[in-house]
Design goal:
This protein is an alpha+beta fold. 57% of the residues lie in helices and 16% in strands.
Length: 111
């Protein structure tokens, strides 16, 4: 089995680190949106999991049924966060997958 080239491994690791930082920065500018209650509550979340906005339709505000509004906000926030996590996973997973695939080609045990 050939010995892995340590310089090549270090170059790949440095490139992956740079790619990860760039992807994390880019995620700050990407926004996903989710809604609940037929669009009565809309939530926008950035790719780095920051809630950017929550919009509530006036018709959703019923002082006699605050529980329903709370449920809609909760549902929309959770869905937007899930979508943002999927986006981040897709962007960052491609980078780490490239490295492990590349290292596996170097004959390192376990990769």
């Amino acid at each position: 089995m050939p010995q892995p080239n340590m310089q090549q491994i270090l170059k790949q690791a440095q490139k992956m680190q740079q790619d990860m930082l760039a992807a994390q920065e880019a995620l700050k500018d990407e926004v996903v949106e989710a809604s609940a209650g037929g669009g009565m509550v809309n939530v926008k979340v950035s790719g780095d999991l920051v809630v950017k906005s929550i919009t509530i339709d006036r018709e959703a505000v019923d002082p006699d049924d605050v529980d329903m509004l709370q449920d809609m906000v909760l549902a929309a926030v959770n869905e937007a966060l899930r979508s943002a996590q999927e986006l981040a996973s897709a962007k960052l997973g491609g980078i780490t997958g490239d490295l492990t695939g590349g290292l596996g080609g170097l004959g390192l045990p376990g990769l």
